[in-house]
Design a protein that fits this description.
Blueprint (H helix, E strand, L loop, with lengths): L9 H13 L16 E6 L7 E4 L2 E6 L2 E5 L4 E6 L3 E8 L2 E6 L4 E6 L5 E6 L11 E4 L2 E7 L3 E6 L4 E7 L4 E7 L2 E6 L4 E6 L4 E7 L4 E7 L2 E6 L4 E6 L4 E7 L8 E5 L2 E5 L6 E4 L6 E5 L8 E4 L2 E6 L4 E6 L4
Antiparallel strand pairs: 1-28, 2-3, 3-4, 4-5, 6-7, 7-8, 8-9, 10-11, 11-12, 12-13, 14-15, 15-16, 16-17, 18-19, 19-20, 20-21, 22-23, 23-24, 24-25, 26-27, 27-28
């Protein structure tokens, strides 16, 4: 693992993040003293480990023809899925994963890793860059490249609403009592009100916007063509600022938690940590290992690197 010496040690950042996670509105405390960087524990995962969903102290990962559950030391469970794709959601005791081969969403029991239901939704991006998200008592997926988002009721495993959106919308996130939807081709962020199942506002974005996260006071969108992360005010629906990360931010992933924005990158490094208030990059971590996913937890950060066939657990050493 490599880090940039001009930035704060990541163990200090994580320590602040853990404290902040107990009080979400409080900023992380300032760093004092020196400490080692976060330690990466890389697990060898044959196949094509990619998107990650957090289930307690474990992570579910999409792989080549299957989804798998991993602890920080070993594989715990596996279920064959023809072509699992995109980010997954966890809700109602289940893992919700898109199957690109069937154009459907699968419901998988978290305890038994057994298939419970298949919901025929259609998928807006059958190539796999998509999101299944949970919020407002429902599961959501972009279901048609012409511009539709499907809302699934977990009580019945059926689609209960279809929301018209901009064409080629397939990136979703939930937060601030809304579904946030990005059209990469349209260069727009859309706010969907779950109470009315309608788009209630939009925000123009930069070049090739993609994955996004809602948390730490804003909606954060990768502007992949510009190499920037845009901070969008969820109430005003305006861009409140941008962080320049690199030449581009294609692929990769983004998450929020513990007072920070966590960005999985493809070029230059594996992981970037952004201060949501100052928009400054607090740390860059790891070697460039190609594309992959990222999820933050209160105990550490999971990243995947499918080109290297690894799943990594980043954590601070015990005090």
């Amino acid at each position: 693992m490599t880090s940039h010496p001009a930035n704060r040690p990541l163990s200090l950042i994580m320590a602040g993040a853990l404290l902040a996670s107990c009080a979400p509105d409080a900023p992380p405390p300032p760093a004092t003293g020196e400490a080692p960087d976060l330690t990466e524990k890389a697990l060898k995962v044959p196949g094509f480990a990619d998107f990650i969903a957090i289930d307690g102290d474990t992570a579910w990962v999409t792989n080549d023809g299957r989804v798998e559950q991993w602890s920080t030391s070993e594989k715990l469970a596996s279920l064959a899925v023809p072509r699992p794709c995109g980010t997954m959601a966890i809700a109602e005791g289940a893992l919700w994963v898109a199957n690109c081969k069937g154009g459907e969403v699968w419901r998988v029991n978290l305890k038994t890793a057994a298939l419970e239901a298949k919901i025929a939704t259609g998928l807006a991006n059958p190539k796999g860059e998509t999101n299944v998200v949970a919020g407002a008592g429902s599961v959501w997926v972009a279901s048609d490249p012409a511009g539709k988002v499907a809302r699934i009721d977990p009580a019945t495993n059926t689609v209960i609403a279809t929301i018209p959106v901009a064409p080629e919308t397939w990136y979703l996130a939930f937060g601030f009592d809304a579904i946030w939807a990005v059209s990469s081709e349209g260069k727009v962020l859309q706010k969907i009100d779950p109470a009315t199942n309608t788009v209630v506002g939009t925000t123009p974005l930069g070049d090739t916007p993609g994955f996004l996260a809602a948390g730490e006071g804003a909606v954060w969108v990768q502007e992949q063509g510009d190499g920037t992360v845009a901070k969008v005010d969820p109430a005003a629906l305006t861009v409140a600022g941008r962080t320049k990360v690199g030449d581009n931010l294609k692929w990769g992933d983004i998450d929020t938690g513990g007072g920070m924005v966590w960005l999985r990158t493809t070029d230059d490094q594996a992981l970037v940590v952004i201060d949501p208030a100052s928009l400054e990059i607090r740390a860059r971590m790891g070697d460039a290992v190609g594309s992959g996913a990222l999820r933050w937890t209160p105990k550490g950060v999971w990243t995947s690197a499918h080109d290297n066939q690894t799943l990594s657990w980043w954590s601070a050493p015990a005090p």
